[in-house]
From TrEMBL:
It comes from the Bacteria. This is DUF1697 domain-containing protein. Pfam families: DUF1697. PANTHER family: BLL4334 PROTEIN, DUF1697 DOMAIN-CONTAINING PROTEIN.
């Protein structure tokens, strides 16, 4: 078995409602085992049989899931798909004090390198409310809780041009996906 984590972008916001039960049902219907959703923000952990994982590369698996989401829920579905091993390495690599009082520990994911490169290039313009660092295919982000979505990096990464290619998760959510 190969365990994967699908991080859905843009569900349960902007009029796109997908319940955890419906999401789990869709993934089971695709033939995946041990399907588990975490929180109501589009996080799915699932297992793929070795024969299926070998016959289908990660990019093809991603496309198949996105197609099923589009068909079932009627929205332009976009996901980040990582193996549990990749996610464990990302979580382990978090470079900041995740328990620092008054700060949120986040990881920004993208399936393409260009958005991450653009966001990293803007780093020198950030103020003291955000600290970011490049990771393997991610941006690690520490955000001052008192400022939250009003911070410079939050506003930058939330721009429309990044919405179809990036998704952000709290480190605690990622740890739950690994449990």
């Amino acid at each position: 078995m190969t365990r994967f984590i699908a991080l859905l972008r843009g569900v349960n916001v902007g009029g796109i409602t997908v319940t955890s039960a419906e999401l789990a049902e869709l993934f089971r219907g695709l033939g995946f085992d041990d399907v588990r959703t975490v929180l109501a923000s589009g996080n799915v952990r699932f297992d793929v049989l070795p024969s299926e994982a070998g016959a289908e590369d990660t990019a093809a698996l991603k496309r198949r899931i996105e197609s099923a989401l589009r068909e079932r829920f009627g929205y332009e579905a976009w996901i980040v798909l990582v193996s549990s091993e990749q996610l464990a390495a990302i979580v382990e690599g978090f470079p900041f004090d995740a328990k620092r009082e008054g700060w949120h520990p986040y990881v920004l994911f993208s399936s393409a390198s260009e958005p991450l490169e653009e966001l990293l290039a803007a780093a020198p313009m950030l103020d003291d409310d955000d600290v970011i660092e490049q990771g393997e295919g991610v941006i690690y982000w520490h955000n001052r809780r008192a400022v939250g979505v009003g911070s410079a990096f939050s506003k930058l990464s939330g721009k429309a041009r990044y919405r179809s290619s990036t998704t952000n998760r709290n480190l605690r959510t990622l740890c739950k996906l690994l449990d």
